[in-house]
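Much of what follows relies on a compact textual record of a protein's fold. Think of the row as the fold of the chain written in a discrete alphabet. An example makes this concrete, so a full record is given next.


***
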Amino acid sequence: MFPSVMLHRHKTEAIRRFHPWVFSGAVKRADKGLQAGDVVEIFSDDGAYLGTGHYGTGSVAVRVFSFVRVNDLQQLWIDKLRSAYQLRKSVGLTDSAFTNTYRLVFGEGDGLPGMIIDWYNGTAVLQAHSVGMHRQAAAFAEALKVVYGNQLKAVYDKSSDALSKAEGTNAVAGEYLFGNPETDVVNENGHAFKIDWIGGQKTGFFIDQRDNRQLLSVYSKGKKVLNTFCYSGGFSVYALKAGAELVHSVDSSAKAIELTNQNIALNALNENKHQSFTADVFDFLRDCTEGYDIVVLDPPAFAKHQSARHTAIKAYKRLNLAALNKMKAGSLLFTFSCSQVVNSEMFTGAVASAAIESGRKISILHQLSQPADHPVSIYNREAQYLKGLVLYVE
């Protein structure tokens, strides 16, 4: 039914253990004329079927989305989305009175490598990270209609920025594949946020910090909080609503600061307790004199590729040291890394190095990660990308 890719005899162990990536070095032979994004079946050199996936021209030759033979591709997408929806339902996200935004599909974690789908109160925002998945965008829109029925108001495709230009694609800047959104406001744990899925970062909101924002609210009452790299002000809104005495939000992007101010107003919070700063975070930390009780460091990924990992680790040390040098005794530091190529041990090591240089006594109160709607396949631990620490600084 589909073209085939044959693997070397001694290169089948990973796929037999359900790892979803077939690297180019494992390929013994591929059918002629294959192009990036083609659906292919994978075989061992003795003819045993191993899986079905999307062909790629980079170091990952095939991204596997099924380990059983596929007869009906559209039905497979429906089944995959139903399974993903059931997982979110099982953790209480689909029927919550306080939360109507979550990640429906998290790539390999949901058996759909290269595909992200976020749910924003009736609008599904799709972001394909591979040509193969982008070719199926319209099919996913149809599958979403089956899974959500009348709950689905619109499907927006925001794939162009995420796709590999090396493989080539005809992705447009962004387009609605279905319907029209009824609202761009969502609720998360009872907090309202305006989502800009057209012009905002990623799909419009950093859903992955939901649980960590909730944890911050536990500590925020009566405290002075600094939220750096604030983007749309998620941590700021949670802190203010939890009764923080003062919240300062910092981002180098004027557009991010505008979104933050909109979300503060949207939640009818006391704007006298909040102040935004359009500034470089390193410069702000160097010059600030306010004695904060809680500092949040949630930077963008300092490294997106292995080649940048060493530089990223040094940047995490520098950032955390800048914060620690300004923190008063008895304060808390919420510090994060979303760089997938920097693992938890590397990140903790960078923060520990900063702690040593600061000369402060520091304890780890919490070790944080991504929430349940960003599941990690036990066969593909590489998808665990978000790391966080809550530190008590003496």
